[in-house]
Amino acid sequence: MAKIRPDDLEKIGETIKRTMLLREGTGRAKVIVHMGTCGIAAGARTVMKALMDEIEGREITDVILTISSCAGLCSREPMVTVELTGEPAVKYVDLTPEKARRVFEEHVLGGKIVTEYALAAGSERTL
Predict the structure, then answer these.
(1) Per-residue pLDDT tens over the stretch 21-32
(2) Is 9 a domain residue?
(3) Largest CA distance in the chain
(4) Which of 24, 96, 97, 123 could form a disulfide with 50 if both were Cys (CB 3.0 to 4.6 A apart)?
(5) How far apart are CA 74 and CA 46, in angstroms?
(6) How is residue 119 annotated by DSSP?
(7) For the whole model, what pTM was predicted?
(8) pLDDT at position 16
(9) Would 85 be classed as within a structural domain?
């Protein structure tokens, strides 16, 4: 077994901080990847990986990336819900890793909904 180095402890600490943010529900944005069986079969893991790479590569600490079960629209998977503080949640459908990166760049970071991938905003309103 390898010995733990100081750099490893920093990485562990950052992971714990992210876990605590998730539990406490703080952050300026929350991105939920729907990973029920249907989502996983449709490619949700690759979407999740693309989003994780964006967050880690840019060293973003105020965006929560989490998962949930099926959102009930299996034929439109992979799906992601984006929740920005003070804004209605937006459901994105039929995603690929490339589309997810665009949603992350334009909506999560830029605040502009990517309407061509969005199914609905809020609980009642469609786009």
Answers:
(1) 544 556 789 999
(2) no
(3) 54
(4) 97
(5) 17
(6) E
(7) 0.77
(8) 65
(9) yes
